Protein 1
Amino acid sequence: MKIAIIGGGIGGLCAAVTLQKQGFAVQVFEANPTFQPVGAGIGIGSNALQALMEIGVGENVFANGHVLHTQIFQDECGKFLNTIDFTVLKKLYGQENITIHRADLHRTFLEALKPNTLHFNKKCLSIVQKDHQVTVHFEDGTTQTSDLLIAADGIHSPIRQQLVPGSVPRYAGYTCWRGITENKGRVDEYTSTELWSTKGRFGMAPMKGGLVYWFACMNTTARNPQLQDLTSKEIGGIFKHFPEVVSNLIFTTPVENILHHDISDIKPLRQFVFGRVVLLGDAAHATTPNMGQGAGQAIEDAIVLGNGFKQFEHVDKVLAFYEDKRVARTAKVIRLSRQIGATAQIQSRPVTRIRDFLFPFIPSKVLMGRLKFLFDVKLK
């Protein structure tokens, strides 16, 4: 079986590694002209790390990551609101929660691929299915025909929008800056922290090599021209109402290390399989980043699809297995992540007072219980 993958991001490359290890002929087509080692820090939950161990790259990912023991929530003055104990996950599931630079995760998959698997400058324009084969038409005028096409081309996937015309990204109501800078003792070595206020939200987490990853979100209109191309000082000024460490981290981040995007997701789809086309990763279930599960769910997709081929001989049964395992689970992540973001981004001061008063009374075990479905994952 010849398999083509559109998109050389985390989901696409993880799927390529998984399927190549099972002996499939896989080719990956990426729209960008080259691999760019850019991006910010991301979280890899114990669920995703479990999955990566299955395909033999988990140890390398773990070696490039940094273990988190605790998640702390605070108000705008730094007052404690609640916490989640990640060490419980290690005891229950045998894997840690880690942070890692997106480029390091990406590079790990690239190094696990067979030579000549990845092709750059291949922007997909459209697809045509005929007789259990799929032909991709690229912008450069070339085509590629395969027995199975995996669309892992992101939230703006032209393939998904061809198959499900109404599946356009929906704006979550807030924009986000993300950066990486040197820690210098400003952030606890094993603790990630989120601070909530009516003017915005800030998060910070340690990374390997004495670095710290941060994000800063504020409610605004989509594509607000006044928030484009801001300097580190200007971004820091927006969040100066938080404790001093917040603006200090932003100020000391070189502007070239700062990314800025509006936050969007897609409404949960009812199917991921269309004939011999499979949607995977953000192309299938783009979610807001409030649960740190974007990369993790893409990784799970890839592993589940590979496990389907291990269990079933006929491709129809493989794809039915994949859809059964992934559609409902990822829809739950999309909905819960959007709810968490909406709660954290509340602007009404009376409502935030009520939220911040009640939040500390919720036992940490209850918070963890709400996330239990994420980590108690069945990939086979």
Note: The chain has one domain: 2-169+265-375.
Protein 2
Amino acid sequence: MSEEPVLDCAGHPLPLERPVVMGVLNVTPDSFSDGGRHAGMESALAHARGMVASGAGIIDVGGESTRPGAGPVPLQEELDRVIPVLERLRRELDVVLSIDTSKPAVMQAALDAGAGMINDVNGLRAPGAMEVVASGTAAVCVMHMQGQPRSMQERPHYADVVAEVADFLVGQAQALVSGGVARERIVLDPGFGFGKALEHNLALFRSLPALAALGYPLLVGVSRKSMIGALLGGRPVTERLAGSVTAAVLAARAGARILRVHDVRETVDALMIQHALEPKQQGEV
């Protein structure tokens, strides 16, 4: 059996031999699933503590909603939302902290506050983003998005969604490596729901084994998303738990190494059962 990778998160090695759960911490008033619930400092800290206690290996802190139709948040407002939370979490929790942002200035401030990972839905396309990543030692997740959140779901179109997403992700990863970023710091995310219709999401999900074979750890985030609701006949966000957990387990089976979820305890439980009950390959424990 080939050796599984270890993600280098600013000196915090994160083993990926089994899938790692990334817990979502939205400190925004308008996120699609839990907008406003954790915008206050004490609520955010309590939620983060709970997710770590439930088995999260990464906490992903976001201060700007990227739901379809969302507008941009001013730089200072985003900084005011996320940096104090990151600073408190860094003092209190021994866990990898991720900053969910596309702004290079927020990336830099988050790294200074102790973040060990940058999670950019814009795929490091903003001027200066790659330079911020290269100047530090944090891990980075490069995600594919067609368009921008405000309009990305209006008319997404691809000739070959799997090939186009793979080409973009590999191209950005190669640019990072050329800029001095070690491969051990890079994660790829196909960006489910970001400028993709249901048929695009399904094609990407069914191609996860091929995407996982691109040479970098794969992050999958489908938790509570509209594709889950659509597959369940139009279920609202509050009724997508079982579908989200099932999709997370299937993604792990297909090769995903990091699973970005809202429901940490349920996902960790499902992965534990999967690991215990699935037939083992020769040489596996």
Note: The beta strands are 6-9, 12-15, 20-26, 58-62, 96-100, 117-120, 139-143, 186-189, 219-220, 258-261.
